[in-house]
DNA sequence: TAAAATGTTATGGTTGACCTTATTATTCCT
DNA sequence: AGGAATAATAAGGTCAACCATAACATTTTA
């Protein structure tokens, strides 16, 4: 952790909130699940965060980043995604591992390093998963993409970004070639929340609904 | 901190021991001072470290890295110095800040990242301060250099490396051009532990004895 | 050899971030 | 409206890493 800064835990809570809901309120239980802590712990932490003015908590409704909290979160996301670019483009590390590897580095990165890294990388606009990189001040631009799980059967769409975080899930998506830029046709949605049958390139693939939530797509222009 | 690894604190204690004495015992008070903790805290921590088999403590004599502890320490030093190379050569960050900036990153660096970074940098042999970078397995090679404070008056020597860690001290050494590769002549050693008068390039410089401990030099071949 | 300096241990405390179990409050749904 | 599900609090605990103050042990040095 960089001197005089927020703790790693604090940064992770704020980042999780930014990743879970863009601006919307997030329930503490979703937060707890995402961070692998009990909901009691998440409640305690949210209290601390709101005492610091980083989040606002409406009991029984959910938590919300304050503008101060959103600034911090965007900054963490920026650091992470810049590191992902470096790890992928220059160190040639495994695509599926990038999130995890960068998730440690992000908390140990001083502002000087962040800025110099952005310059070194040529101020990239997105990370290797297709997610936008917030710029030095403001926050991330909104993309008009939707999860693959919401696409009607028969449509052909293009993968914009992948928002999974677990190396295991990312490895699986990679195996199915569900990578940014790919065209995908939704052939069938099996009943009872069964898997989506997809055509990716010239192969067919079956994708569980939960994983389909992570794959963001846009209509082909 | 990387999953399932030692804490940042543990790594810093081990690194401090490696930096303070190469193989020799180090007194707990020196350790405490270097890490800016009280000697009571350092004693407690040393107990924990020796329970983990990372150091051995001979009461009233000092602490010693075990071979397990030395392995860890070398690895931390390797990570740090590799990051220093990256921050200096690629991100063009300020020389005097490198130690501090890399000191955060070192604890957040997974083995995959360390290895790939070394390859990316072309397996450098030394950091920008002239200190050797341990290789992936073994430890650092011994250099035959001595602190500037031990050089006889009249000698001309070459700076091999600078072992200071504080940005402030490093900035000062940089201002005096006491950088690796530079030739230095010791003109005079003032009495009562007064400063050393040096000729560095075509300028004269006064250097306190304490800072002279950080500047390692070798005879000119 | 005795006093000074240095090193160690004992006690008791703090803080952040976790945990479990149990209870209470609110919201959602039938 | 009432029960189920969900959310929040309360109470008590753990663990790593720090702190201060005080007592005790050893080594150094005069
Ligand atoms: Mn992280
Ligand atoms: Mn990414
Ligand atoms: Mn460090
Ligand atoms: Mn260095």
Describe the model:
The structure is a homodimer of 221-residue chains. Chain A contains 8 helices and 8 strands; from the N terminus they run αααββαααββαβββαβ. Chain A is 40% helix and 18% strand. Chain A has 221 residues and is of the alpha+beta class. Chain A has helices at residues 8-20, 28-34, 39-51, 67-90, 98-105, 111-121, 167-175, 209-212, and strands at residues 55-58, 62-65, 146-147, 156-162, 183-189, 196-200, 203-207, 215-219. Among the domains of chain A are: 8-69, Winged helix-like DNA-binding domain superfamily/Winged helix DNA-binding domain (Arc Repressor Mutant, subunit A, Orthogonal Bundle); 146-219, Ferrous iron transport protein A (FeoA) (SH3 type barrels, Roll), CATH 2.30.30. A 6-stranded antiparallel β-sheet of chain A has the order 3-8-4-5-6-7. The termini of chain A are far apart. The interface between A and B is medium-sized, with 22 and 22 residues. One manganese (II) ion (MN) binds at residues 12, 103, 106-107 of chain A. Chain A binds a DNA duplex (30 and 30 nucleotides) through residues 7, 9, 27-29, 37-41, 43-45, 48, 59-60.
Topology diagram in text:
The structure is a homodimer of 221-residue chains.
Chain A: H1 8-20, H2 28-34, H3 39-51, E1 55-58, E2 62-65, H4 67-90, H5 98-105, H6 111-121, E3 146-147, E4 156-162, H7 167-175, E5 183-189, E6 196-200, E7 203-207, H8 209-212, E8 215-219
The site of one manganese (II) ion has 4 residues of chain B, from loops.
The structure holds a DNA duplex (30 and 30 nucleotides).
């Amino acid at each position: 952790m960089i001197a005089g800064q927020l703790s790693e835990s604090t940064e992770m809570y704020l980042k999780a909130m930014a990743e879970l809901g863009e601006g919307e309120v997030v329930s503490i239980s979703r937060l707890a699940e995402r961070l692998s802590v009990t909901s009691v712990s998440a409640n305690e932490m949210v209290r601390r965060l709101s005492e610091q003015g980083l989040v606002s908590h409406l009991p029984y409704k959910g938590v919300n980043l304050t503008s101060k909290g959103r600034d911090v979160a965007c900054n963490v996301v920026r650091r992470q995604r810049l590191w992902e670019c470096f790890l992928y483009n220059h160190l040639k590390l495994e695509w599926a591992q990038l999130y995890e590897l960068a998730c440690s580095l992000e908390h140990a990165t001083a502002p000087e390093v962040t800025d110099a890294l952005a310059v070194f990388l040529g101020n990239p606009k997105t990370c290797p998963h297709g997610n936008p990189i917030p710029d030095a001040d403001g926050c991330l631009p909104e993309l008009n993409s939707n999860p693959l799980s919401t696409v009607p059967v028969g449509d052909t769409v293009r993968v914009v970004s992948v928002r999974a975080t677990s190396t295991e899930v990312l490895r699986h998506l990679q195996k199915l070639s569900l990578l940014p830029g790919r065209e995908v046709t939704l052939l069938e949605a099996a009943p009872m929340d069964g898997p989506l049958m997809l055509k990716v390139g010239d192969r067919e693939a079956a994708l569980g609904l939960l994983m389909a939530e992570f794959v963001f797509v846009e209509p082909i222009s």
